[in-house]
């Protein structure tokens, strides 16, 4: 029914957006159970009846946040699929760009990322679906001749999700490395490996 009977308008949209932003921060800081509607509305300078114009309850605003994250993340993953006909010398740049976009999204939305990708009861399912989507991308990219068919793409996809997950916590959120740098390092590891090329074979 839209906003539970409230007319859509710029003020209404702004109020809803403010509630979502504050709720994301409250959930990220205090967890789902530690967050109260009263705390959200107090920080927003609103009343509880105003909150209920937009959201049925705490669970509803939490679910909207998680669904927003999921939609944006899967859209980025879909966009990152390599289409046929890319020049080989621009391949690593294209892959780096796609990964950097994902890390940038996480960096710009740290509260949303924390609750959706790490703390939500559905975060494990989200990462499983992300790995499946990456695996589908990789399968398409193998067909287009970009990657070796001998690699187990399920293992590759799960490894990539694990890297993204861990580096977000240890490097991105603490501000140690920027999205582009992390993306470049991941691509370098996967495309070039870690073997010292100067070692001569016996």
Radius of gyration: 21 Å
How far the N terminus sits from the C terminus, by CA atoms, comes to 72 Å
Proportion of strand residues: under 5%
CATH class of the largest domain: Mainly Alpha
Overall pLDDT level: 90
When the domains are counted, the total is: 2
What are the SSEs and their pairings?
Layout (H helix, E strand, L loop, with lengths): L9 H25 L2 H8 L3 H7 L3 H22 L11 H18 L1 H10 L3 H21 L9 H20 L6 H14 L10
Helix pairs in contact: 1-2, 1-4, 1-6, 4-5, 4-6, 4-7, 5-9, 6-7, 7-8
Protein name: TetR/AcrR family transcriptional regulator
Organism: Cytobacillus mangrovibacter
Keywords: DNA-binding, Repressor
Structure described in brief:
This protein is 72% helix and 0% strand. The N and C termini lie far apart (72 Å). It is elongated and about 65 Å long.
Give an overview of the whole structure.
The protein is mainly α and about 200 residues long. Helices cover about 70% and strands about 0% of the residues. It has helices at about 10-35, 35-45, 50-55, 60-80, 90-110, 110-120, 125-145, 155-170, 180-190. It is elongated and about 65 Å long. The termini are far apart.
């Amino acid at each position: 029914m839209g906003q539970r009977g409230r007319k859509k308008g710029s003020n209404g949209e702004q109020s809803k957006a403010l509630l979502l932003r504050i709720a994301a921060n409250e959930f990220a800081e205090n967890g789902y159970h530690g967050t109260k509607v009263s705390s959200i509305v107090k920080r927003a300078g609103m009343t509880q009846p105003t909150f209920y114009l937009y959201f049925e309850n705490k669970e509803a605003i939490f679910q909207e946040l998680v669904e927003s994250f999921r939609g944006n993340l899967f859209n980025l993953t879909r966009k990152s699929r390599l289409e046929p006909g890319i020049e080989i010398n621009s391949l690593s740049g294209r892959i780096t760009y796609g990964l950097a976009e994902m890390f940038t999204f996480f960096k710009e939305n740290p509260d949303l990322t924390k609750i959706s990708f790490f703390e939500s009861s559905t975060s494990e399912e989200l990462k499983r679906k992300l790995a499946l989507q990456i695996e589908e991308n990789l399968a398409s990219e193998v067909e287009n001749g970009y990657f070796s068919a001998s690699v187990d793409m399920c293992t590759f996809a799960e490894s990539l999700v694990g890297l993204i997950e861990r580096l977000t916590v240890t490097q991105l959120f603490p501000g140690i490395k920027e999205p582009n740098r992390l993306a470049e390092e991941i691509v370098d590891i996967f495309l070039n490996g870690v073997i010292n090329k100067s070692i001569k074979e016996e």
